[in-house]
Amino acid sequence: MLTDDEYDYLFKLVLIGDSGVGKSNLLSRFTTNEFNLESKSTIGVEFATKNIKHENHVIKAQIWDTSGQERYRAITGAYYRGAVGALLVYDITRQSSFQNATHWLKELRDHADANIVIMFVGNKLDLSDTSRAVSSEEGGALAEQEGFLFMETSALDATNVEKAFATVFSTIYAKQPKSGETQPGQAGGPTPTAGERVQLRPPSVRGQPRGSMDESKEGRKRSAEGSNGSGGGCC
Ligand SMILES: Nc1nc2c(ncn2[C@@H]2O[C@H](COP(=O)(O)OP(=O)(O)OP(=O)(O)O)[C@@H](O)[C@H]2O)c(=O)[nH]1
Ligand SMILES: [Mg+2]
Disordered: where is this region (predicted)? Predict the structure, then answer.
């Protein structure tokens, strides 16, 4: 029987998308079931963790969040390194955030592992009746064209938030080698503990070997955190 401190897999997932689309609130809704209507733009990089049970395994989801603001773009190399999943978030009430998906997609293609599992997420579904600017069909069509998973969510009323994360993690899990893995390691480098400052390398050291999907098999590793945790750091 596993305790809260033990897990079988560590999956690093990154949140990306324009500033204000709701990345931080999706994260807080998923990890602590909290929502903040007046949240401030994220400064630097934050992360939170949550243990998920899937089949007979415990997956430690380590989710990284940064601001969509242009001035934080210099951190990309470290942010994407070792990520096995990404939520590319746009705001269904803001066309520009949807159009900028191509910019974020380029970032993913340039910096992330080629096997990364991507979900295209149209957030603020609660505003669908009053101010929708991007139809579900448009979102779904782009996702299909790019080979992404797709879901519309509301961090405000929690619609599809758990489902979106769970779908990404189960898809990543399904890609893991199920037998004969002999390379225990960590996705995304050392697991930061709650409150720990995350040291990010400048983009100039990009090109070093990245974590692969195979590296996320942890074997029943003991972590320094509980089942849910958060921390953060700034660069
Ligand atoms: N109505 C509604 N508002 C939301 C939802 N999600 C986030 N918001 C609001 O949108 C604003 C921005 O949310 P954040 O989560 O801070 O956005 P972000 O993508 O993290 O922004 P950056 O950190 O600047 O990149 C806040 O006022 C939130 O309360 C949602 O699902 N519905
Ligand atoms: Mg944020």
Answer: 177-235
Evaluate whether residue 194 is within a structural domain.
no
Mutate to test the pocket of ligand 1, among 14, 24, 123 (most ligand atoms within 8 A of CB): 24
User: pLDDT at position 184, please?
Assistant: 42
**Which ligand 1 atom sits nearest the alpha carbon of residue 40?**
16
Condensed to tens digits (0 to 9), the pLDDT of residues 138-157 reads: 999 999 999 999 999 999 99
Ligand nearest to the CA of 129: 1
210-220 pLDDT, tens digit per residue, is 233 333 343 33
- 161 lies in some domain: yes
pLDDT in tens, 49-108: 999 988 888 999 999 999 988 776 666 788 999 999 999 999 999 999 999 999 999 999
Ligand of minimum distance to the alpha carbon of 104 = 1
CB atoms within 10 A of CB 83: 25
Q: Which are the contacts of 27, defined by CB distance < 8 A and separation ≥ 6?
A: 15, 46, 48, 63, 65
How many angstroms does the Cα of residue 63 sit away from the middle of ligand 1? 17
Q: Which domain holds residue 75?
A: 9-175
Q: How far is the CA of 39 from the centre of ligand 2 (A)?
A: 8
Read off the pTM: 0.81
CB distance 146 to 114 below 8 Å: no
164 is a domain residue: yes
Contact present, 117 and 168 (Cβ < 8 Å):
yes
Residue 205: inside a domain: no
> Any idea which residue has 């720990």 for tokens?
196
Number of domains in the chain: 1
